[in-house]
Design a protein that fits this description.
The protein is of the alpha+beta class. The protein has a single domain, classed as YaeB-like fold. The protein contains four helices and seven strands, in the order ααβααββββββ. The chain has helices spanning 4-7, 38-46, 54-62, 67-75; strands at 50-52, 78-83, 91-97, 103-111, 116-123, 130-131, 135-136. The strands form two sheets. Strands 1-5-4-3-2 form a five-stranded mixed beta sheet. A two-stranded antiparallel sheet has the order 6-7. Strand 4 and strand 5 (116-123) form a beta hairpin.
Amino acid sequence: MFSTEDRLGLAAPSMDFDPVYTGCIIVVRFKKNKDMNIENIINAIRNNQVRITDHADEEAVDDCLTYEEIYFSAIRGEVIENYPSDKPYPSCLILGRNFSSEPIHSVWAYNSENLWVVLITVYRPDPERWIDWKVRVKK
């Protein structure tokens, strides 16, 4: 008999197998990596495949942030929190820095079907609420 690994092409076939079709179907579910891939976000920004929520637009204006510096910070930033259960798309919080090296937090969602990103919100992090801009202060 073929082992499961053999049927999936993960192992070399053994010499003793039964090639008779049994009518069984094997369903394999691979565990998806729930962490956002920042490269997908960077590629979407570089390809101008970005949607911006009204909320993000308002926050950018309130914090005097331009889209140029928001994109710059995301492209050179790092994912510090993942929100894999967000709907309609998983999202993440990116810490980046603007042209003056000031910290910027931006939340991005990624649509893997059309390869677009959505800027959900953006803000200048409050030093009273963040340790090294990466870790939330416990209340």
